């Protein structure tokens, strides 16, 4: 078997792993496919005759391609935050096949993709490769063109941002999580009675213009009825740490559209602040709830 055929065989067997890495680094299934294809073109041009570990070499190439794409995205000022196509996404998502980006995003964790999107390109690459795929820092250093020690610092800084830091004691955080989970379950089900049970009687919902046409809604029944009518939106919502407290992020296909910052009074939701303005979304501290995701295969 010649070198090119051997390379093609290793590449085909590694394709799923490489695509999984690329998806987590880029947050887009289409871009992940582009990155894997570009990696194949680079690898086939270079040849693998002198390469001792072809699978690790391919990981390095994919990492470099993804880093270039993330840097290019940042230079162009692209932010994967846009509320304009939200309704179209709601309508189209139901017809998705098993390889659709929405399915991929949900398997990775929509909240994780939202948090990763706030990281710098090198931080994101270092965190994904090391914490999610156990790639050694010596290999990551070659991708990000830093020393192994510097690559380790990139991953450590990213890890702190991904985990976040709650502003309340653990017991309060657990109580908030129970209330938010109950609110989310009732919202997804469109269950009016369950919503009324978790909303304070004089609850208030405040929204910015990018999130809703109506700036303010007062009273548990009005909020519950409105929430029940829009149950389809709730399937894209996931609990997250929002400015140090338990809240919700609405992220179709891993793209942050809305943030719900919830004020909990006892075992009821008292205030819901909903915002979708891109500048405000970028300024919000969003982190994962609970333990960080384990190292996993694609």
UniProtKB/TrEMBL annotation:
Keywords: Sigma factor, Transcription, Transcription regulation. It comes from the Bacteria. This is Sigma-70 family RNA polymerase sigma factor. Residues 12-76 form the RNA polymerase sigma-70 region domain. PANTHER family: ECF RNA POLYMERASE SIGMA FACTOR SIGI-RELATED, SIGMA 19 FACTOR. Residues 111-161 form the RNA polymerase sigma factor 70 region 4 type domain. Interacts transiently with the RNA polymerase catalytic core formed by RpoA, RpoB, RpoC and RpoZ (2 alpha, 1 beta, 1 beta' and 1 omega subunit) to form the RNA polymerase holoenzyme that can initiate transcription. It comes from Actinomadura keratinilytica. Belongs to the sigma-70 factor family. ECF subfamily.
């Amino acid at each position: 078997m010649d070198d090119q055929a051997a390379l093609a065989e290793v590449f085909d067997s590694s394709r799923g792993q490489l695509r999984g890495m690329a998806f987590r680094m880029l947050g887009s299934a289409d871009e992940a496919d582009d990155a894997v294809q570009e990696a194949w073109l680079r690898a086939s041009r270079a040849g693998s005759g002198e390469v001792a570990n072809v699978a690790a070499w391919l990981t390095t190439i994919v990492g470099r391609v993804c880093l270039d794409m993330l840097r290019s995205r940042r230079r162009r000022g692209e932010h994967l935050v846009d509320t304009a196509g939200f309704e179209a996404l709601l309508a189209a998502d139901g017809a998705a096949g098993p390889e659709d980006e929405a399915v991929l995003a949900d398997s990775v964790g929509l909240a994780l993709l939202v948090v990763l999107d706030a990281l710098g390109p090198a931080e994101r690459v270092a965190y994904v490769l090391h914490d999610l795929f156990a790639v050694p820092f010596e290999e990551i250093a070659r991708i990000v063109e830093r020393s192994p020690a510097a690559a380790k610092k990139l991953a450590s800084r990213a890890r702190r941002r991904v985990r976040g830091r709650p502003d309340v004691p653990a017991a309060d955080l657990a109580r908030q999580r129970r209330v938010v989970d109950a609110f989310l379950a009732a919202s997804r089900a469109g269950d009016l009675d369950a919503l009324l049970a978790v909303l304070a009687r004089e609850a208030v919902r405040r929204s910015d213009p990018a999130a809703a046409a109506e700036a303010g809604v007062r009273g548990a029944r009005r909020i519950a009825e409105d929430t029940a009518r829009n149950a389809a939106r709730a399937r894209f919502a996931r609990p997250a740490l929002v400015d140090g407290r338990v809240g919700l992020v609405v992220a179709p296909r891993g793209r942050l559209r809305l943030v719900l910052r919830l004020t909990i009074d006892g075992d009821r939701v008292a205030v819901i602040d909903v915002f979708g303005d891109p500048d405000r979304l970028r300024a919000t501290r969003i982190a994962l709830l609970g333990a960080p995701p384990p190292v996993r295969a694609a």
